[in-house]
Design a protein that fits this description.
366 residues, alpha/beta, Rossmann fold, 3 domains, three-stranded antiparallel β-sheet, 20% strand, vWFA_dom_sf, VWFA domain-containing protein, VWF_A
Length: 366
Amino acid sequence: MAAGYRFTDYIPPQDDKTGFESLLQIFMQLITITSGDVGEALSWLSSLDKQYNLTNNEYGIGNFIEDLKAKGYIDENEQQKGSFELTSKSEINLRRSALEEIFGKLKKSGKGNHTTPHTGQGDEASTDRREFQFGDTLEQIAMTDSIRNAQLNHGLGDFFLTENDLEVTEREHKSQTSTVLMIDISHSMILYGEDRITPAKKVAMALAELITQKYPKDTLDIIVFGNDAWQITIKDLPYLQVGPYHTNTVAGLELAMDILRKRKAANKQIFMITDGKPTCLKEGIRYYKNSFGLDRKVVNKTLTLAAQCRRIKIPITTFMIASDPYLKQFVDEFTKVNNGKAYYSSLKGLGHLIFEDYSRNRRKTF
């Protein structure tokens, strides 16, 4: 033993998770990939078990399925005998798992709101002081500072307070933020050997859980867009699938604008996750489609809506998960017209970018 040091045998850290907890973590990942198909997820889990020996003689996949039922994660499907479906407990677990996976390293804090750069009669005291003004409340008066001012101004012999002696604590205004998250579900989200929809779903679930937990006064609306656009609920996210669709960005933006017009929050914004160019418009009952290059007719309509959003102070942040130069050029033009922001992200960094942008926006009023 060297002086000042003591050496012992190295014992590698042990996985303290039970067999059920370890398998549950994998199962939840598979459920997201299979869009809520319990049977397919269990089949994949069995294949992984065969390849990587996830279970042992004491605890097998059959035990895991029984525990899933007993603990309330899955139920028998009443319409399809012999099959299973997710419960609300699983849906909540998926959102919390996504939040932990994507934002898990963030420092936890209490429930809050979104600060604005304005001061005055707000919700929460700040550290700033200023002179008393008409309309300030009694609770805002900083008594210690005010008494000190009176002593300095009038001396200790004949103590009295005047309005000029009073100091008050600034209060920060809080504002709600309304966000619409647009998710591209066109066919290209699963083309080229890359699953892009699963990370998008995870980000949406994590963002929904974050807002629910930390910013309960905020609103989050989620819409998907392919040939058309429609609104979905948070509950629908695990089951979201890509369709044989083109990319009707115009329909998505129109629906997002309609939703935000009804919101009374001071801050309004659109987050758009997409990997492709706009390729589709709906004209009456027919669709105008062109997947070859950037169609000027489709692009012009999309840029017109970007400008409309700018006029009504709705910034659009585009998270582009593709790297084609001509697509970047389009997104740059779209962003310039809207005066918004654009990120060219890998799938791995998508969640952190969205959280950083959301956090930054909550500190200002658009």
